[in-house]
Amino acid sequence: MLKALFRNAMTVLLLSAVAQTTLADSLTDQAQALLDQGKAKDAFNLLEPLESQRAGDENFDLLFGIAAIDAGQNTRGVFALERVLALHPDNARARAEIARAYLALGETDAAKQEFESVQNQGVPPEVSATIDRYMDAVDRVNAATRTTLRGFVEASLGYDTNVNAATSKSSVALPGYGGTIILDSDSRAIDAWFGTVGGGLNVSSPISNEVVAVAGLTGVIRNNFGASQFNNVSGDAYAGLVVTRDKNVFSLNAQFNQYNLSGDRYRTASGLSGQWQHNMDARNQLSAFVQYADLRYQTQSIRNADRWVAGGAFAHAYRGGEVAFASLYGVNETTHDGDVPWLGFNGVGVRAGGQLNYNAKTILFAGGSIEYRHYSAEDPAYLATRKDTQYDLVIGSTYTPARYWTVTPRLTWTFDDSNIELNKYHRETAAVIVRREF
Q1: Is the CB of residue 365 less than 8 Å from the CB of residue 353?
Q2: SS3 for 72?
Q3: How far is 92 from 137, CA to CA, in rounded Å?
Q4: How far apart are CA 189 and CA 368, in angstroms?
Q5: pLDDT computed for residue 163 by the predictor
Q6: What is d(CA 126, CA 108) in angstroms, rounded to the nearest whole number?
Q7: Cα(first)–Cα(last) distance of the chain, in Å?
């Protein structure tokens, strides 16, 4: 797929480039026709006998280099393309093809340098997008063979109709206490504009051909304008191993999360997560996962709980670049304090979504989930056992104005339908996120 995209993009580059060209003869015409038909080996066999006498002819060397690379003769291709670049260093097509050969030979640093050189010449957007995909392939090869450090910084601005995820009602009945309570302003839905800043670092280090050690840190600071009592800071850390064997990828991570609310420590979550991913073929993927977290609330220890999530997922990539996925999972929270079983629950959820490539720089995405939760005992304040069904939707797009930069406008909608009025709420957000990776 990537090879076909590259071939199409290079055709655009060849037609749009202003590099010097020479008149093609019948031999090169025939070789070009064979390449256009995907018959690289035939083109290579046609041109190879004349290499010694035609070497130095830019058009011949360019076609011979392309044919050699497509036929798997990467070193021969590099030699031919180096002759082209010796005469015309600004030949973008030759640089793009030699970069591809370097990548095939495992010379990732040289490949990246050549790809970047082509992009700096101001190539058409579709060519630049294809080169970005090859640069991503370079990064994946490096990640599998050497210690790599990756990171990102991002910022967002948006509007939230319910920053505290609260009911919109002003009062609720408490049958267990024989009356009704009036909710204060902080216990009712508050809308506000908000901004966030965040960043993260991830490191991977191969231990062997099959085992990679990974670790990372991320953090986000959120400010709610006009509702500062709900400003929050969240930080995550993880460390673990990724093991790849044939079509199977296994991962195990230790994880930690700290969530602070209004400047105070609110909750910590520490635990483990494991996943098995099976790549059925180039377009289909199965996975199964299990997660455990020990939840600790610093000012509400009665809510401390063990949380388990386990499930499976399936993803499919279509020929046009579209991706669809679906997952099913179960969840359980059991409080540490056996005297408050109504705070624990069992649940089940389903998620589905997908994305499609709108154009060379824009990806559209959408997704949704439904989670049903049945709590473990009757709540004495409401004289009822709580039951919630939560619905979530997200829709948006990711625009890539330049390599490593993305701009993501996103809309989200949440509705928690609970039989206990205090826990019933809806929430909508609209935000634009700008991200820079490095």
Answers
A1: yes
A2: coil
A3: 20
A4: 23
A5: 97
A6: 22
A7: 26
pLDDT digits (tens, 9 = 90+) for 53-109: 898 888 899 999 999 998 999 999 899 998 988 888 888 888 888 888 888 888 888
From residue 366, alpha-carbon distances to 8, 154, 409, 414 in Å are 29, 21, 12, 14
What is the rounded CA–CA span in Å between residue 58 and residue 387?
74
Q: Could you identify the residue written with the tokens 């993305």? A: 406
Per the CB < 8 A criterion, the answer to whether 430 and 411 are in contact is yes
**How far is the C-alpha of 21 from the C-alpha of 6, rounded, in Å?**
21
| Rounded-to-integer distance, Cα 257 and Cα 235, Å | 6
Least Cα distance to 305 among 316, 297, 313 occurs for 297
Q: What separation in angstroms does the CA of 329 have from each of 48, 219, 341?
A: 58, 27, 22
Max Cα-Cα span within the chain: 101
Half-sphere exposure of 370 (CA within 13 A, CB side): 3
pLDDT reported for residue 9: 52
> What is the spatial distance between Cα 112 and Cα 101, in angstroms, rounded to a whole number?
11
Provide DSSP, 181-246. Answer: EEPPGGGS---EEEEEEEEEEEEEEESSSSEEEEEEEEEEEEEEET-GGG-EEEEEEEEEEEEEET
Q: What is the sign, positive or negative, of the torsion defined by CA atoms of 114, 118, 121, 122?
A: negative
**Cβ–Cβ < 8 Å for 269, 295:** yes
Beta bridge partner(s), residue 222: 196, 232
Rounded CA-CA distance 328/280 in Å is 19
SS3 435: strand
d(CA 271, CA 294): 6
